[in-house]
Amino acid sequence: MKLKCRTVEGFLSEYIDGDLSPELHAAISAHLSGCERCRREVKELRRTIDLVKEDEVPIPPESHFDRLWSGITAELEEVDVHTGLKLYLLRGLRSVKEALEMWGISWKIKYAAVTLVLILLSLLVDRTLFRPSVDEILFNTIQRSLSSAKTPFLAIEVPRYSNRPITADYKTGLIVRKDEGRFQVMGVMINLKSVQIKDGVLTLVGDIDLSKPPEGDDLPRSDGIPAPELKLKDIALSSPSRVWLSDSPKPREGKLSEESGLRSMIYTDTDAAFANISIGDLN
Amino acid sequence: MEEFVSDTTLIENLLEGNVEALGVLFERYRHMVYNVAYRITRSHHDASDVTQETFIKVFKSISRFRGESNVETWIYRIAVNSALNHLRKMGRRKEEPLDDVPEVEIPPTERSSDDPERYLERREIRRAISQAMRKLSPEHRAVVVLHDVEGLTHAEISKILGCSEGTVKSRLHYARRKLRRILKPLLDMGV
Question: Do B49 and B131 reside in the same domain of the chain?
Answer without folding.
Answer: no
